[in-house]
C-alpha cells in the first residue's frame, strides 16, 4: 500500500526571485481536500501551477537519491518536499502511474491529469541554473492530479488505484511531450487520454496546428 506523506505551503517572497509556495511543511492527521487542492496550500504562478486540473502535485521520494548524486554540494537540499510536492511516496514512479489513473485516497477520488512541467522557479529555489532543464531531460518530474470527489484525506490513508483509463504511462507522456521530435500521431494519442489537463491539451493542439514544438525556454529558464 502506498501511504503518502502529505505537505502544504504558503506563498513566500524569495530574494532575487518571484514569490513562490514551493517551501512546504508536513501535515499529520486529516486535512480537507477541495477541488482546488489541500486546505491551507497555495500556488503562486497560476499559469504553470494550480487550478482544478493541477490541484495536487505528487513526487516520487526515490528520485531524491539521483539529485543528491548529481549535486553532492547541495545534497542536504534534496529530500521531500523540496520540489513543492503535496504527496510523497516510495514505490510509485512515472513508470507505474498512468495518465488518467483514478485513485481513491481517504474519502476523496483523484485523477492524474499531466506530468509536472518543470519551471524556472526550481532553478532559483535550489540556486542551480539549469535544474528545470535537467529535471525535464531526466524524466524525474512527478505528476499532477485533479480532484474528482473532495473529502478528508491523510497520510494514514493509502492511495488505491480504482480505474486505469489509458495505456500511456506518465513516463511515456514525458517522452512524447519533451524528448521526441515532432510527432503528430503521438500527440493525438496523448490528446485522447481521459482526464488530460486543459493546459496539456492546448499545448498539443497548438503543436498540431502550427506543425512545430513550442520553445521550452520561457517555462524552463524564465526568458
What does this protein structure show overall?
By secondary structure, the chain is α+β, with helices and mostly antiparallel strands. The protein has one domain: M1 Pyruvate Kinase, Domain 3, CATH 2.40.33.20. 26% of the residues lie in helices and 21% in strands. It has 7 helices and 11 strands. It has an 8-stranded mixed beta sheet. A 3-stranded antiparallel beta sheet has the order 4-3-10, with no helix packed on it. Strand 3 and strand 4 (37-38) form a beta hairpin. The model has no long low-confidence stretch (mean pLDDT 92).
What is the compact description of this entry?
This protein has 223 residues and is α+β, with helices and mostly antiparallel strands. It has a single domain, classed as PK beta-barrel domain-like (M1 Pyruvate Kinase, Domain 3, Beta Barrel). It has helices at 64-70, 121-126, 131-138, 170-179, 184-191, 198-210, 217-221, and strands at 5-8, 25-26, 31-34, 37-38, 56-60, 87-89, 102-105, 108-115, 143-149, 151-153, 159-163.
Amino acid at each position: 500500500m502506498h501511504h503518502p506523506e502529505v505537505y502544504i505551503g504558503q506563498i513566500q517572497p524569495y530574494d532575487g526571485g518571484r514569490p513562490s509556495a514551493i517551501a512546504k511543511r508536513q501535515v499529520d492527521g486529516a486535512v480537507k481536500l477541495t477541488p482546488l487542492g489541500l486546505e491551507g496550500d497555495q500556488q503562486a504562478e497560476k499559469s504553470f501551477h494550480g487550478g482544478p486540473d493541477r490541484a495536487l502535485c505528487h513526487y516520487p521520494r526515490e528520485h531524491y537519491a539521483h539529485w543528491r548524486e548529481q549535486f553532492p554540494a547541495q545534497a542536504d537540499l534534496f529530500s521531500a518536499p523540496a520540489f513543492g510536492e503535496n504527496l510523497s511516496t516510495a514505490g510509485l514512479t512515472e513508470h507505474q502511474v498512468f495518465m488518467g489513473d483514478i485513485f481513491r485516497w481517504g474519502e476523496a477520488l483523484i485523477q492524474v491529469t499531466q506530468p509536472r512541467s518543470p519551471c524556472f522557479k526550481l532553478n532559483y529555489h535550489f540556486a542551480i541554473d539549469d535544474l528545470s532543464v535537467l529535471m525535464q531531460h531526466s524524466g524525474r518530474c512527478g505528476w499532477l492530479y485533479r480532484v474528482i470527489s473532495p473529502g478528508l484525506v491523510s497520510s494514514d490513508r493509502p492511495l488505491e488505484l480504482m480505474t486505469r483509463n489509458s495505456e500511456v504511462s506518465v513516463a511515456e507522456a514525458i517522452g512524447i511531450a519533451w524528448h521526441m521530435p515532432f510527432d503528430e500521431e503521438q500527440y493525438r494519442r496523448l490528446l485522447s487520454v481521459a482526464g488530460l489537463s486543459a493546459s496539456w491539451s492546448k499545448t498539443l493542439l497548438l503543436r498540431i496546428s502550427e506543425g512545430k514544438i513550442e520553445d521550452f525556454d520561457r517555462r524552463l529558464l524564465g526568458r
